[in-house]
């Protein structure tokens, strides 16, 4: 078996389905297997996916195992020479996985490979490549020097933002959203540390691969990452789990440092968690007392696809009272779609919804990469499922 793909799912069955639809094309010609570990979802994920995908291994957990433990369960049952840990709220370009696997074949010291992740508005996700969060690197990130001097090899090391995002490069930390692993490497250094419930385990594994003598690489092959649909980043639980993971990593790898170094770092982590809670609470307070611009809370949908898709989405838009525009096309024209962004009114957030029957996943990624307006985000419509998927909601 050449490749195993592992997806850990929690209450995101429609995003998983979209991810699987993209994998169907991306895995053509690759000897592969797919595992889905469902962390005790309450949305009927297991039943829904089992009826539609008979050749996929689905592990139905009776409770929420967390990201690391769930992945490890599937890892131990799998047999791929390479193992891809893939987030459920992603989709991949048709050639992305093939090129990543070919790269691993050509670079035997590569223990892990990450790729170019795009946000829903098409912008480059900084988490695509990162440096190890050493005490000094973390300090530069927390005090704002990383953001102020991104081209600096010293201050910008947290996101390694001095590297060309369109060139392959050796990096230190690979994102768990798309983490392609060499099995012989993880057999040598161990897989994910189950002390991490969620977040931080990818940093820890990346570090152990480097300490084991392996290389971590970034490849400019695109995927879309909706970033947090399965983890609810607006919740207090997210803040607790995320910053707790930072403390676990710090204690595991830097506890040998002196008290006068560790105390400021721990204090900074708690301070950042507190500030995150405040930033999370303010929008809810503004909304509750009526200070939110209601127009900014609405969304304009632009549906682009075949006449069959336009007809279906017109009916959905009428049913839900969506502010919508429609454009019928028979073939994708990347240049025309990219030129469209400058003509879209953005007096409110906009979601451009493409018909996946004619717009390939790589094509949509290429189109969105030209977008420079963060109010414009990508959505998809599948004739197979008749479901509209956007970064913030599912419309049926």
Automatic annotation (TrEMBL):
Question: Which positions fall inside the Glycosyltransferase 2-like domain?
Answer: 4-188
Q: Name one Pfam family in it.
A: Glycos_transf_2
Source species, domain of life: Bacteria
Protein's UniProt name: Glycosyltransferase
């Amino acid at each position: 078996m050449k490749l195993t793909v592992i997806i850990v799912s929690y209450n995101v069955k429609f995003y998983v389905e979209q991810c699987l639809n993209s994998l169907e094309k991306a895995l053509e010609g690759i000897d592969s297997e797919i595992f889905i570990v469902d962390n005790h979802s309450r949305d009927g994920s297991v039943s829904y996916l089992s009826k539609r995908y008979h050749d996929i291994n689905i592990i139905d957990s009776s409770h929420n195992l967390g990201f690391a433990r769930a992945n490890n369960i599937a890892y131990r049952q799998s047999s791929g020479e390479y193992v891809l840990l893939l987030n459920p709220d992603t989709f991949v370009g048709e050639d992305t996985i093939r090129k990543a696997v070919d790269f691993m074949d050509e670079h035997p010291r590569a223990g892990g490979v990450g790729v170019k992740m795009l946000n829903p508005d098409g912008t480059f996700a900084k988490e695509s490549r990162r440096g190890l969060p050493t005490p000094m690197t973390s300090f530069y990130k927390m005090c704002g020097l990383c953001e102020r001097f991104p081209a600096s090899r010293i201050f910008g090391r947290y996101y390694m933002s001095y590297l060309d995002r369109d060139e392959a490069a050796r990096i230190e930390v690979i994102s768990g959203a798309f983490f392609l692993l060499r099995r012989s490497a993880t057999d040598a250094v161990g897989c994910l540390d189950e002390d991490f419930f969620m977040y931080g385990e990818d940093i820890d594994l990346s570090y152990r691969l480097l300490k084991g003598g392996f290389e971590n690489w970034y490849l400019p092959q695109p995927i879309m990452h909706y970033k947090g649909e399965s983890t609810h980043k607006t919740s207090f639980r997210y803040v607790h789990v995320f910053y707790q993971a930072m403390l676990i990593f710090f204690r595991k790898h830097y506890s040998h440092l002196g008290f006068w170094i560790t105390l400021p770092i721990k204090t900074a982590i708690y301070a950042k968690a507190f500030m995150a809670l405040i930033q999370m609470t303010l929008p809810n307070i503004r909304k509750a007392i009526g200070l939110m611009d209601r127009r900014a809370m609405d969304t304009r949908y632009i549906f682009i696809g075949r006449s069959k898709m336009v007809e279906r989405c017109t009916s959905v838009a009428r049913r839900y009272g969506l502010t919508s525009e429609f454009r019928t096309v028979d073939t994708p024209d990347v240049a025309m779609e990219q030129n469209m962004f400058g003509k879209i009114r953005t007096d409110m957030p906009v979601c451009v919804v493409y018909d996946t029957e004619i717009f390939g996943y790589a094509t949509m990624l290429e189109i969105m990469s030209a977008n420079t307006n963060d109010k414009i985000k990508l959505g998809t419509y599948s004739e197979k499922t008749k479901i509209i998927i956007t970064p913030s909601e599912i419309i049926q």
